[in-house]
Design brief:
The protein is α/β, with parallel strands linked by helices and about 400 residues long. Helix content is about 40%, strand content about 15%. Helix 6 (about 125-135) links the parallel strand 3 and strand 4. Bound molecules: pyridoxal-5'-phosphate.
């Protein structure tokens, strides 16, 4: 018999990811229609591939870069932050990371001591809560307001603050709800953070995917927030580069060396070939981003039209951003979203993600991704219409 080793409590406390569980189960179902993944279906634009290939051929990718990333990439990132996020950054305030996810993890590690509390608007991206647990912190969920489309509830956030609260961590545009937090609300949130001396960690992975005139606002652009915000971004969603694992964060001079200390033991540096690809992405034409946005908008519209055909089954708010939506299941059996999603997969061959995976306010919902082809949406909804009669 093999040895039975004790697993750290911080890791064993983490439950199975419902997203990965659904992926595993979906593989067992022949020809399942997939609405469960938040990854772009389009390939990385050619000019970005070409930038990476050129760097490989020039022999630039075989060694580590500096821990913080290539200086020329950090320079370009500063230009982008100024242009698109109204953040005045210096290259020394940028850390290039292994996707947004590693940047978020490093930020949490740098800011959270065991037992510290981090407020997460709920529902939210499940990985954020796991990052807090791995840092031996405590995720505290503050419900969002479902009426009106899961808007930020500033009063609920205030009510969740205790002497142990250290940070607020949110994503906007939101995974899973598609909400885009308004500038006005984020300014209110900033006031709360200042009043209670809290850090704010942002996940702005979907910053370019907003629709119908909704605009993305970066809380890091508020001058009074300098020193207390870690703003995390990614190339992976913006340029359809999820496999390249490349993102970055911005924080103030005081914080950035501390976050870098947390980044090094997990990554040393971000993959250098991907850093060159990211450089090509920033320096190259940006119309690919507009193209992706337009595709997601039209896929969203199609998904909403198809949902309208199932008014007794789902109730939803049209997402203002990201490429995800979060309808409420109106049927009684939807109260257990995990069981509902498994049944839908087995009996209708449609793969979705249970809302319970996104925090306590997520139960009774399911997450649908419209980052898929129109054909996939039609296939999934054709089956659901038949299934629900
Ligand atoms: C809100 C959010 N943040 C971060 C990520 C992961 O980003 P990255 O690929 O840059 O690590 C995802 C992926 O689904 C996401 O939905």
């Amino acid at each position: 018999m093999g040895a039975r080793l004790r697993v750290s409590s911080r890791v064993s406390e983490i439950g199975k990811s419902a997203i990965h569980e659904m992926t595993r189960l979906s593989r067992e179902v022949e020809d399942a229609a997939f609405l469960s993944w938040a990854k772009p279906t389009s390939g990385t634009p050619e000019h970005i591939d070409a930038g990476a290939i050129e760097a490989i051929r020039a022999g630039l990718c075989s060694g580590y870069s500096g821990n913080a990333g290539l200086p020329e990439l950090r320079q370009e990132i500063c230009r982008k932050l100024k242009r698109d996020n109204a953040i005045d950054a210096e290259p020394s305030q940028i850390l290039v990371t292994v996707g947004a996810i590693e940047g978020l993890a490093a930020a949490v590690m740098a800011l959270i001591d065991p037992g510290d509390e981090v407020i997460l608007p709920s529902p939210t991206y499940s990985t954020h809560a796991r990052q807090v647990v791995i840092a031996s912190g405590k995720p505290v969920f503050a419900p969002m307001i479902e009426e009106g489309g899961f808007v930020l509830d500033i009063d609920a956030i205030r009510a969740a603050i205790t002497p142990k609260t250290r940070a607020i961590l949110y994503c906007s545009p939101s995974n899973p709800t598609g909400t885009v937090f308004s500038e006005e609300q984020l300014r209110e949130l900033a006031e709360v953070a200042i009043e209670h001396n809290l850090a704010v960690i942002t996940d702005e992975a979907y910053e370019y995917f907003t629709f119908d005139g909704h605009e993305h606002f970066s809380i890091g652009s508020i001058p009074e927030m300098r020193g207390r915000v870690v703003s995390c971004y990614t190339f992976t969603k913006t340029y359809a580069m999820t496999g390249w694992r490349i993102g970055y964060l911005h924080a103030d001079d005081e914080l950035i060396p501390q976050i870098t200390k947390a980044h090094i033991p997990f990554a040393i540096c971000a993959p250098v070939v991907s850093q060159y690809a990211a450089l090509a992405a920033l320096k190259g034409p940006q119309d690919c981003v507009a193209g992706f946005r337009e595709h997601y908008r039209s896929a969203r519209d199609l998904m909403c039209e198809r949902l309208d055909q199932l008014p007794n089954v789902f109730q939803y708010t049209k997402p203002a951003g990201s490429y995800l939506m979060f309808p409420r299941i109106l049927l009684d059996e939807g109260r257990d979203s995990a069981a509902f999603c498994k049944k839908l997969l087995r009996e209708a061959r449609v793969s979705t993600t249970p809302g319970a995976a996104f925090g306590p306010t997520g139960e009774g919902h399911l997450r649908l991704s419209f980052c898929v082809t129109e054909e996939e949406i039609n296939k999934a909804f054709g089956r659901m219409e038949q299934y629900f009669g």
